Amino acid sequence: MARSIVCPLLSFAGLLAACADAPSPTVWEGRVDSLPSGTIVVVNPARGVWDSATAWRAVEDLRIGSVEGDEAAAFGRIAALAVDPAGRISVLDQQAQEVRVFGPDGTHIRTIGRKGGGPGEFAGADALWADATGRLWVSDRTARRFSAFDSAGVLLGDHPRSQAGFFPEFIGGSATGDLWDAWLAYDAAGEPLDKVLRRFTDGAYRDTLTLPRFVEAQWQVVRRQGTSTMQFNLRVPFTAVELLAVEPLGGVWRAVTNAYRLTRFDLRGDSTRVVLREHTPIPVSAADREGALRRYRTDFADDLGAIDESLIPAAKPAMWTIVVDDLGYLWVVPYTADDRAAIAFDVFDPEGRYLGAVPTPVTPQRLRPRPVVRGDALYYVTTDELDVPYVVRVRIEGRKDP
């Protein structure tokens, strides 16, 4: 049978068994269940443990971007961010296919790479990772390789990626410098197989981790052009997606967004911890539904025969994205009723207990690139009224980690 524990919040190193007498001005009102399989299930209420005195606060202290004048800070499309231990901020401009590196004060230091297929050049760079040694890793999905640069921007080497399955999706790295790729393969009948994660370290793939199968709800649209046809797979609006994030010690967190549920998998593929939070679903309004369909009708005006509107769910997903910071805390961007509304990050300690929400002073882009949290700083991309992108750094005031 499962065991349930209800106790005040402890520090990261604290023991649940010792929590009964721990002095605290706030009380965690959730419970911890231990399943026969060994999985720990942390059930959180809607309310966190922070009060007005202990809540973390986000205060903007740096913005990088330019409409004109500063060429290095005039971004086309920002695809990824990375922050190294020295606080240097690397920004991948997907349009230019180059990485621009800025100091902690926002000064442009250097630009790495350019479009091309040669050493250190990028054909379809789509993600970044800065490891604990200061190395910068660039994921190039089109060229199927990782490029590693030292802290001075010198190319250390290009590393081919596996050719198995379809195009790999880089999902993050650990503090030890391991990189993780996700692959979705199909069987001979065209049915999707379980998702496979592969750990890349020391220039080669070392381990494989298989996650439970997840299949997106999609519309299949066929476009005819003369005698040829082209098939599009379109995700059905407001349906669930799979989110993956790597934690510092090498485990992987996974969320399927139709529920407020996060699951941690170890390197063997075993689920070791599940984090739940009480969540009230946000209905998909008639205006939401019509707005989404209007976009599809505009983009695929001649190809609507295969679109089944009944697949649009009654409720929106629970979350936009998940981030694991360098100390193992979970940061979740929940859905809001209004996509244009300001957002707050839900923050969970490394054991999965809900602390509270951190409102952002400037609204981030919700989908990409993924925000980065290092120590007491949160980095993300926002856009102004002209849709010009900026990199924003906010300081997390009140954060006190063990």
Describe the structure.
It is a single chain. The chain has 402 residues and is mostly beta strands. Helix content is 3%, strand content 42%. It has one helix spanning 286-299; strands spanning 3-5, 31-34, 40-44, 57-64, 78-83, 89-93, 98-102, 108-112, 125-130, 136-140, 145-149, 155-160, 169-173, 179-183, 195-201, 204-211, 218-225, 228-235, 242-246, 252-256, 261-265, 271-277, 319-324, 330-334, 344-348, 354-359, 372-374, 377-383, 389-397. It has a seven-stranded mixed sheet with strand order 1-2-3-22-21-20-19, with no helix packed on it. Mean pLDDT is 85; it is low at 1-25.
Oligomer type: single chain
Count, helices: 1
Proportion of residues in β-strands: 35-45%
Instruction: State the end-to-end distance.
Output: 33 Å
3D shape: globular
Strand order of the largest sheet: 1-2-3-22-21-20-19
Structural class: mainly beta
Helix content: under 10%
Number of strands: 29
Largest sheet: 7 strands, mixed
Contiguous uncertain segments of 5+ residues: 1-25
How do the helices and strands follow one another from N- to C-terminus? EEEEEEEEEEEEEEEEEEEEEEHEEEEEEE
Task: Report the C-alpha radius of gyration, rounded.
Answer: 22 Å
